[in-house]
Design a protein that fits this description.
TIM Barrel; 11 strands; 327 residues; 2 domains; eight-stranded parallel β-sheet; 14 helices
């Protein structure tokens, strides 16, 4: 575990002395693995970190004791930097933060909440903080809150998302104009060419979720991983804006929501239909019809389940092969 896995040239990608994200997190490549619920356990996070990216443990689907166990196992599996993703809309938030302090986690990505809530508290413990936003307005608020980096996520992304429906390619250059902090692009990124495109638009690094969801090391159910490889364009949609916007696969559960919308948009009935633990039912337990299946639009480009190391090799090669376009 003492050396990064090396994959090739990618001179603009491997630039740890000059790239702000690589320098900030002390990683080889400015590639962050999204802290996806029911996918991002210690195996995925450590594999990404060992490949030179930044692995994130997804605290959103973990009870506090499970989070502690995953942090400890991740430390045993890698001596490279890794972090924890903390969605601030989930319960047990104070206990989760306490565990992060006790286990001496050095990097935290927060989302779905006000960045002012915990940024300074975390930074007092020498923790580097990045916050996920879906608009330029909230990116500016992140800068005011003093975060170390900002993740700007377009609505192509899977899982909980912004209401504005701004695409990544529109969002990144606009955010870049209004902030000075290191900028990470997220949403709709799975190929090395997409990494390069995001960086051309002004991103310093990228956060990738869906591509890492379909890896051997992801903790999701095999039924769900296989389903990801079968998805095509138009098979996901952003819904449930009245509750918490989420991009999900158009399965039986999704169509139940659509029927409610067609019959008057009854918010209480939406809540009742969503119920509890539907994401666990779908992505972790493998019920592809009655469970909530969260994945990004870029799933249409994913047609095989790879180990994390192969995903990195592929991204680096694609990044190099994309070249420098001319007009």
């Amino acid at each position: 575990m003492s050396n990064f896995i090396h994959f090739g040239i990618a001179e603009n990608l491997y630039n740890e002395n000059r790239n702000p994200i690589s320098k900030l997190f002390e990683i080889r490549y400015p590639i962050i693995q999204g802290g996806m619920i029911w996918h991002s356990g210690w195996r995925l996070a450590s594999a990404v970190s060992n490949c030179g990216g930044l692995g994130l443990i997804g605290a959103g689907s973990m009870y506090p004791d499970i989070l502690r166990e995953n942090i400890r196992k991740c430390k045993q599996a890698t001596d490279k930097p890794f972090g924890v993703n903390v969605p601030m809309l989930y319960p047990n938030l104070e206990e989760i933060i306490k565990i992060i302090f006790e286990e001496q986690v050095k990097i935290v990505f927060t989302s779905a909440g006000n960045p002012k809530t915990y940024t300074k508290i975390l930074q007092k413990e020498n923790i580097k903080v990045a916050h996920v936003v879906s608009s330029t307005k909230f990116a500016v608020k992140c800068e005011e809150a003093g975060v170390d980096a900002i993740v700007a996520e377009g609505f192509e992304a899977g899982g909980h998302n912004g209401r504005e429906e701004t695409t990544t390619f529109c969002l990144i250059p606009n955010v870049k104009k209004h902030i000075s902090k290191p900028l990470i692009a997220a949403g709709g990124i799975a190929l090395g060419s997409q990494v390069k495109a995001a960086m051309i638009l002004g991103a310093d690094g990228v956060q990738i979720g869906s591509r890492f969801a379909a890896t051997s090391e992801a903790s999701a159910h095999d039924n769900w991983k296989n389903k990801i490889t079968e998805l095509g364009e138009g098979d996901t949609q952003l819904t449930l804006k009245e509750l918490a916007p989420v991009r999900m696969v158009k399965n039986k559960l999704f169509h139940e929501f659509e029927n409610i919308y067609q019959n008057g948009k009854n918010v209480e009935l939406l809540k009742e239909t969503l119920g509890r633990a539907k994401a666990k039912l779908g992505m972790f337990e493998g019920d592809l019809e009655n469970g909530e299946l969260e994945i990004g639009q870029v799933s249409a480009l994913i047609d095989e389940i790879f180990p994390v190391e192969d995903v990195f090799k592929k991204i680096i090669k694609e990044f190099d092969d994309a070249g420098n376009p001319r007009i």
